[in-house]
Amino acid sequence: MKKKIFILLSIISIFILNGCSTKKQLMSTNNEGGYTINFGVGKLKKDDEDVIIRGHVFDLKTGKLLSNAKLKTGCFEFRTTSDGEYSFRTRNRQEDSFFLEVIAFSYRAVETKLVNIYNQKEVIIDFYLAKDDRPLIECEGDEMIKKMQRELNNLK
């Protein structure tokens, strides 16, 4: 009897611990970083209403908010605040879907998959960027690089 109670309590504990996990399930990207997407409560009813797109940009490992990260969608660019937040509005149109890309110095860029925002009142996309450990390559002013480039240009 004690063994059965112990097994039952162990199983219940496992379910509770797994259910209380604070780690978010990130949507995968082409690198270690990722993003989460949530749609706010409520739906828009008219095409001329505004959809709010907002969120935060975080360091994947530390959870620290990243300021001055650049967000790009199509031809438009936005920057995060000093608190790592961003927000913008767009019109509610049936054909409106978009990709959103985040770029921050010394981090790998993250781009969403196609996001359909039609009739959504609010779209919340939080980005988690992984550090870019690749070395920076300085190509300007190095005579060796210039010589190699001339040789490559003269190949036939």
Q: Provide the CATH topology.
A: Immunoglobulin-like
Enumerate the spans where pLDDT stays under 50 for 5 or more consecutive residues.
Answer: 17-23
Under the CATH scheme, the architecture is: Sandwich
Main beta sheet: 5 strands, mixed
Helix content: 10-25%
**Rg estimate, integer Å:** 23 Å
List how many beta strands DSSP finds.
11
| CATH evolutionary superfamily | Carboxypeptidase-like, regulatory domain
CATH class: Mainly Beta
Apparent shape: flat
Q: Reading side by side through the largest sheet, how are the strands ordered?
A: 1-2-11-3-6
Give the count of helical stretches: 2
Total domain count? 1
InterPro entries: CarboxyPept-like_regulatory (IPR008969)
Protein name: Carboxypeptidase regulatory-like domain-containing protein
Organism: Flavobacterium cupreum
Please provide a written account of the structure:
This is Carboxypeptidase regulatory-like domain-containing protein. It comes from Flavobacterium cupreum. The chain has about 160 residues and is of the alpha+beta class. It has a single domain (about 25-135), classed as Sandwich (Immunoglobulin-like). It has 2 helices and 11 strands. The chain has helices spanning about 1-20, 145-155; strands at about 25-30, 35-40, 50-60, 70-75, 75-80, 85-90, 95-100, 100-105, 110, 115, 120-130. It has a 5-stranded mixed β-sheet, with no helix packed on it. A 4-stranded antiparallel β-sheet has the order 5-4-8-9, with no helix packed on it. β4 (about 70-75) and β5 (about 75-80) form a beta hairpin. The protein is flat, with a radius of gyration of 23 Å. The model is unreliable at about 15-25 (pLDDT under 50).
